[in-house]
Amino acid sequence: MTEVTAAPATAPVSPAATARVLAEAARAVDAPDLVLAVSRNGVRTVHTGGSAEPGPVPRELMAYELGSASKPYAGLLLARLVAQGRVRYEDRAADLLAPGFPVHPAVRRITLRHLLTHTSGLPGLPADFYPQAVPRWSTDPYGGYPADRVVRSFLRARPRHRPGTRWRYSNFAVSVLGHTLAAATGTPWEVLLHQQVLAPLGLDATRVRPGPDGTDAVGHRRDGTPVPALDTGGFTAAGAVRATPLDLLTFLEAHTGGAADPPTDSSLAAALTEVTRPVLRRGLRHAHTHTLTWFHHPSPYGPVLFHAGATLGQQAFLGFRPGTGLAVAATATRRVHRADTFVATAYGLLTETP
User: Fold this and answer.
1) 87-95: which pairs have CB atoms within 8 A and are 24 or more residues apart?
2) What distances in angstroms separate CA 30 from CA 11, 22, 315, 335, 339, one per listed residue?
3) Cα–Cα distance between 245 and 37 in angstroms, integer?
4) Which residues, 6 or more positions from 109, have their beta carbon under 8 angstroms from its beta carbon?
5) Residues 71, 79: contact at Cβ < 8 Å?
6) Is the full-model pTM beyond 0.90?
7) Angstrom distance (rounded) from CA 40 to CA 22
8) Residue 9 pLDDT > 80, yes or no?
9) What are the distances in angstroms from CA 118 to CA 71, 191, 280?
């Protein structure tokens, strides 16, 4: 099913042409439920499909688990709190979480910026996470590791590398960031995210917990077996966001300037600009560029910013081209596998079309 909205006279690519591109791209992805959504200066084209029979709620109105694609929401929250003067990027996390608590010197040096940009020196997950997770790796690896345990593991950590010297992707670090911001503001993470990001952007169909029955997409293993809804335990900031594809487009449009109602709050506008600015390079010959929270790549049509995510049975992709009004959101309800084409397909929509 394809839903097409009318295009303004100035649109360089018509919605009908975009619809054909999305329909062709969808053929490359095998999933029970699939949504490919594009916004060009606020004009939306949405393609839905998949191998499963559609349910009573249209696929584009279902809430999908974003997994690691939740991190741009955490990044925007931090950037807005900094713009408001409530925290600083260089604030030390341990000082905000547990003032005076004795920690390893390297932990003492870890800042909010380090946590968000994966340069803290922390591992991807705490060392003691795996014993409790492995026995239920395919069903509920995170639910048995609560917030207080994440915080304790951070305060007792022994980073391998000095903060700020190496890039290493870390769900642990971004989760610590969430708990630190909650402590610094005296506000629970879920409430803070809603107050500072979701409500101001009008993201009414975005949340960090499962919604009412029938409103959340159901993930599937590779063999098609349904999996339970994700419980992120204490790793909420790193991967708990759920959103409809239409809300994902709203979130991305705020970054591209294509929002129907651009933010009028100066701190939110400043944060949206800040998270698109490249801040570090990594890899061989520093070929990989990152902003505070987005992966940053070149393309024939200018730089692209994106983030992908996966849970036990779902995948998501968010991306946009700054200054062009182009945004791409994609969701699928099948667990990632080695030959998976989902991310490559969504990335191609962002980088290979005018």
Assistant:
1) 87/112, 87/181, 87/184, 87/185, 88/112, 89/113, 91/184, 93/154, 93/176, 93/177, 93/180, 94/154, 94/155
2) 31, 14, 12, 10, 11
3) 7
4) 92, 162, 163, 164
5) no
6) yes
7) 13
8) no
9) 11, 24, 10
